[in-house]
Amino acid sequence: MESLNTLIVQVINSRTLITATLSQLRSKGEVTYTKVQVKPVELKGKLHYQFAYYTGPKVEHRNIPAEEAAEEMMSLLRATFRQALLCTVEADYQVLISKKYKVSILTKSASKQEAPDLAHNRKKQYVLDEGEPVPFLVELGIMNSEGKVLAKKYDKFRQINRFLEMVEDVLADLPAGRPLTIVDFGCGKSYLTFALYHYLAVRERRELNIVGLDLKADVIEHCSQLAAKLGYSQLRFLVGDIADYNELDQVDMVVTLHACDTATDAALEKAVRWGASVILSVPCCQHELFNQIENDVLSPLLSHGILKERFSALATDAIRAKLLDLMGYRSQLLEFIDMEHTPKNILIRAVKSTGGDNAAKWREYCAFRDFLGAKPYLERVCADLLPVETTAQS
Ligand SMILES: C[S@@+](CC[C@H](N)C(=O)[O-])C[C@H]1O[C@@H](n2cnc3c(N)ncnc32)[C@H](O)[C@@H]1O
């Protein structure tokens, strides 16, 4: 084991280690982890090594200071694993340890050409890691079977991860101790629906009932087949129009990603009537207000089509957030993904709350709506849930 210790100390001290994978259990009797992956990360300006301890589909991460990393790897190789692959800038080392601790080290040319980019690692601490094949991402053609994200699918991968970060942030707002019911309205090819299922059922081990709904029968048929292939038994896909969807009485979370124009509002109405604990909605192509807005003061802005379009979209989301607040939610508008990747980058996150001074909120809302001359869909369809004056003013 001395030669192995020397090698590990050397690749750590010279900062040439890109990844290490420790595998093949010494004894299956006391299975702790089935595999451990190691990679360098920079934390607060200091080199650390991130150890990912896998037990079946579950993974636990620990960031260990560089000076302790060699000892942690060696203690895992003494007690738990008989195989290691160390990929460094200079070479790959295939390590085999016999039952009697005889070590053989095979040196091959480097399979990973790049030096470890620590800043890069630090920036991309995704919920779903690249390098670890995730079945639904492989099936959807985002990763290959080795877990490598396809170059042209990187934006989608980033988007899915960003969405899962948002879900992670609201986990505490969802009911605990019972199955969760979730609806993805306008699910399309259902990247998010599958991601939600993977994250909640496989990683968080929650009991689920997830429904993806869309108008397109062929897309829904394809998603249903994929769910069956992946064994995602608590995930169903249905063909239908959001506004007509009446199957469920109680839903805990509603999500929409780029549901066109007022389809987002139809989804928000459903969510509010169900009293969903959480709403995550990224709107898209808001056309409704574009044809309604009239305001002489704003004429320098509204006379330019492109500005009017963007302003209408922003005003629509401001109206949605205020109406959700008025109907018992605490809403926030967050950047979903950098503008660089998509202009459809605002996410409405609304969490059920105990409410507040609705009279003041309502006055503020009405003043804004009337200033713009807007007659928003969401206000019309939720008139019975809003302060009484609504019916008189809308
Ligand atoms: C831009 S795609 C987004 C699909 C998916 N959420 C995604 O981000 O990949 C919008 C989807 O919403 C669906 N859609 C639009 N209006 C709808 C409605 N009223 N009811 C159900 N689905 C609707 C469309 O069929 C389309 O698949």
From TrEMBL:
Transmembrane segments: none annotated. Gene3D superfamilies: Vaccinia Virus protein VP39. SUPFAM superfamilies: S-adenosyl-L-methionine-dependent methyltransferases. It comes from the Bacteria. Residues 155-290 form the Methyltransferase domain. PANTHER family: METHYLTRANSFERASE DOMAIN-CONTAINING PROTEIN, PTHR13369. This is Methyltransferase domain-containing protein. It comes from Paenibacillus auburnensis.
